[in-house]
Known about the structure:
Layout (H helix, E strand, L loop, with lengths): L1 H12 L7 E2 L7 H15 L10 H9 L8 H14 L6 E3 L3 E3 L12 H9 L7 E6 L5 E7 L6 E5 L9 H11 L4 E5 L8 H8 L7 E9 L7 E8 L13 E5 L6 H9 L5 E5 L9 E5 L5 E5 L1 E5 L13 E2 L11 H10 L5
Parallel strand pairs: 1-12, 6-7, 7-10, 10-11, 11-15
Antiparallel strand pairs: 2-3, 2-13, 4-5, 5-6, 8-9, 8-14, 12-13
Amino acid sequence: MKKIAFIILIQLVFSSCEKVFMRPGPDKTNKAVFEEYAKLVKEKFAMLKLKKVDIDHLRDSIGATITESITEGELFSKLAFITKSLKDGHSTLTGDTMFYYDFTVGHPKAYDYDMLFNNYLNPAIDNGYVAEYKDAQGRPDYYVGHLSLNPEVAYIRLPSWILDITDEGIDNLFKKISTYKGLIIDLRDNGGGDPVLATKFAKYLTDKEVNIGYERFKTGPAEGDTSVSQLFLKPAASNYKFLNKPVFVLTDIWCFSATTTFMYSVYPLSNVKYLGYKTGGGAGSVASGILSNGWLWDLSVSEFIDYKGGHWDNGHQPDILQVIDENNPDVDEVLERAYREIEPLLK
């Protein structure tokens, strides 16, 4: 899928920590390449236990089938089977083609852009006011304003975390919505981008430093070979923080990577609720490298655990589950449910 490839490309550019690039070794035999990859997964992939992966069993069982007579394509398929077993959208293997784990398969829709624009964001249809901001190339970038569903509730639509917006622009955005009584942040279909930008937005929803959890990095082959980095959300240095008002974040299975960063950053805030469908996860940092034969690999080398002990790399369940009825093309049930849920909370 083109969109999966886009997400992976984004992750190659952005990650939640500095990416480590591993140099290839000298031995290019089929057996050596397979052992090299299995060793990398055991030493670096941070979620073997969480994902229930027995890497020693995979190495032994698949390794027994590796000979020097198998084709390059057959060897790639055997390594890709290990990649698939990780069930991680950030972990990929690239030779002549790219193999990735498609975490979106089998999930219902909670978002339809055409439905959203044609029936809600289009100024010719909706008598609310939602401004469309465009990037330097004139492409739609993000939306800010309110819908006629309730003019007291601000609406922000962020399709990615690669936005043509400065720190001053973020401050102006929150200044525009500062007088509203509630806020809906629509992150559906947001596959990620820059986690630093996602964190900057999160900072506007708190007025005090908050312990959000910790990131656990894999540092060696043993299960206990890990290091921990505590994470905190600090408030923005702004007069326009959106505080003590209800905030609903709309989610679907495509919420991944930097979107997860935003979500776990605001998770401890009691006024923030998630509505929609389970997210895709992808909370960890990523390392990249090259195998001896030139194939590229990405592996998640950390996992995020929130302040309650919850893991986010398999996705996060919403507080309120709601999907779209595909037989009703004129109604965004997720968006309208959010307005019904937020209205009783307005002051």
